[in-house]
Amino acid sequence: MPPSPSASQPPVLRFAPSPNGRLHLGHALSALTNERLARMMGGRLLLRIEDIDRERCTPALEAALRNDLAWLGIAFDGAVRQQSEHFADYRVATRDLRRRGLVYACFCSRQEVRAAAAARAAASGEPWPTDPDGAPLYPGTCRASALGEGAREIEAPHVLRLDLERALTEAGEGLRYGVFDDEGAVEIVAAQPRRWGDVVLARKDAPTSYHLAVVLDDARQGVTHVVRGRDLEAATDIHVLLQRLLGLPAPLYRFHDLLVDAEGRKLSKSRGSESLAELRAKGVTAQQIRRDLGFA
Ligand code: GLU
Predict the structure, then answer these.
(1) Where do the structural domains in the chain lie, given as residue ranges?
(2) Counting atoms of ligand 1 from 1, which one is nearest the CA of 231?
(3) In what order do the strands lie in the sheet with 225-229?
(4) Is 18 a pocket residue for ligand 1 (Cβ < 6 Å)?
(5) How many whole angstroms separate alpha carbon 94 and alpha carbon 202?
(6) The domain 12-107+142-292 is classified under which CATH number: 3.40.50.620, 3.40.190.10, 2.40.30.110, 3.40.50.720?
(7) pLDDT digits (tens, 9 = 90+) for 4-32
(8) Beta bridge pairs of residue 266
(9) What is the pLDDT of residues 57-87, one digit of tens each?
(10) Ligand 1 binding pocket mutation candidate from 13, 15, 18, 211 (most atoms within 8 A of CB)
(11) CB of 214 closer than 6 angstroms to any ligand 1 atom
């Protein structure tokens, strides 16, 4: 059983956007869902700026994001946590995992991973498995050569990967997490970390991946209830594994449906979905958005 937040502890929720593009209606839905649930449960709602990608996240986009949230009328409690200010914290965690032999250095580029996966598929005549995001599972090229390398610092161009099988041996099989509903009932779900393979935990240009930063920050901020889109549901498999390995408390989870465009594709910054700023410029009000999304 995953440890669940105690009934005496006031719930803590968070909205954790990345300032790597303009916010769209999908972000508004996520922020408003968190706001509604925090209110319903008498909890606190925190803001976290997920800006580990130092190339795509900019101060101007962050200012715009904060402005959009203020315009929507969402009030956050407590201090804002800014991931770019906590790189040292993430490094401590990766070093710890590396010392324990759970993380290894990988020198493969994305292209090399794809090529190695294609070669394995051709050799076996079977399709090479992909992770829930559609990327080929890491075929393990650098895993064997990394054995016994010790806890060297990150050096040449490469990433650090979690050795999934070793991690599962240490964490134990049968990882689970709780999904909560409006009535406070909790459904226990089995995590399937093997479908992700040896995930990346840090890159040369960023001392953490999304997976590592999110579990450390949820713990540091005392988050008890993680509410996010269904597109991040599968990632929870890796998050519960990292929580177990790092001795962090396990929050409860809930995944809301995603908004889709006219073609049925989820709204996305990279596909240029209409931003909240564009809607505002057209005269759409925050009240209309709240009403249209079902929060009025
Ligand atoms: N930063 C992520 C995003 O903007 C959300 C992270 C999370 O809620 O776990 O999609």
Answers:
(1) 12-107+142-292
(2) 10
(3) 186-190, 176-180, 252-256, 225-229
(4) yes
(5) 8
(6) 3.40.50.620
(7) 555 567 999 999 999 999 999 999 999 99
(8) 260
(9) 999 999 999 999 999 999 999 999 999 999 9
(10) 18
(11) yes
